[in-house]
Amino acid sequence: MSSIITTHLRLLKSPRLSSAAVAAAGRHLHTSAVQQVGRKKKVIPRVTKSQRREHALAIDQEDQENDIENMGEWDGDDHHLYGHLLMESIRDVRKYARQMKFEHPALAEFKKPFTAPSASQILRFESSATMGEKSQAKDRKVVMRVKVQDLGLDALVLRKFVLLAGPRYNPQTDELIMSESRELASLLNKKRLADTLVALIEEAKKKDDSFVDVPLDFVHCKYKPKPAFPKSWNPTIKRNKIKKVKKNAVNKNI
């Protein structure tokens, strides 16, 4: 309340305000009244009856022009709506075909040979990009995957690191998975994930408390066994011949 009174008094002492504004501010000691002091009232232009009548006549005239009953007879000199849509799609295909023929060969000088990631590049980032759209909320999301064994941590630090990671660590694949989408760009989210990983490693290497008494909990990771495919089900030459003979016999009976 004291801040409101201070602002109110400051407005009263302002030389730019008129006497009517100062009197109005003195009568209403409220936040909304203080905010409205010195502002001009917005004037909304009124629409006259003649302007409304002209607007209604213009709308009626446009409806009459677009009415099917007032259209001329079709002489077979134009396509219908679906025909125009088909022609538009054909134009798009031809446009990209011209680009492939004349523009894409010019990009050959910018090609680079593929180089596999080295052993030191252990971080994998996944992101999406929607073609034809400037910005999408799903495009800024980035997912980071890293094998924990590739971090080179000793047993005690590794245990503390896994404990800090929580449900983001998968013990079956020994993989840490983290995602980020708070920033407005995917590159910023990628940088944020890398910084988070560095902070986790630094926190795990601190020797103030190793959390040895805290057990590891992997309840979040549910094991789903994958049964092996029986070798007896694999197709063989003999089995394929028998299957072909049976199929031919069925076709003859039909």
Outline the low-pLDDT stretches: 1-15, 25-35
Q: Rounded to an integer, what's the Rg over CA atoms?
A: 37 Å
Largest sheet: 4 strands, antiparallel
- Summing up helix and strand content along with how strands pair, one would put the structural category as alpha+beta
| Percent of residues in helices | 40-55%
Number of DSSP-assigned strands: 4
The succession of helices and strands, N to C, reads HHHHHEEHEEHH
Distance linking N and C termini: 94 Å
H/I helix tally: 8
Q: Kindly state the mean pLDDT as a whole number? A: 80
Strand content: 5-15%
Shape: extended
How are the strands of the biggest sheet laid out side by side?
Answer: 1-2-4-3
Report on this model:
There is one protein chain. This protein is an alpha+beta fold and 254 residues long. It is 45% helix and 7% strand. The chain has a 4-stranded antiparallel beta sheet, covered by helices on one side. Strand 3 and strand 4 (175-180) form a beta hairpin. Helix 6 packs across helix 7. It is extended and about 85 Å long. Mean pLDDT is 80; it is low at 1-15 and 25-35.
Keywords:
single chain, 254 residues, alpha+beta
Question: Could you write a compact summary of the structure shown?
Answer:
The protein contains eight helices and four strands, in the order αααααββαββαα.
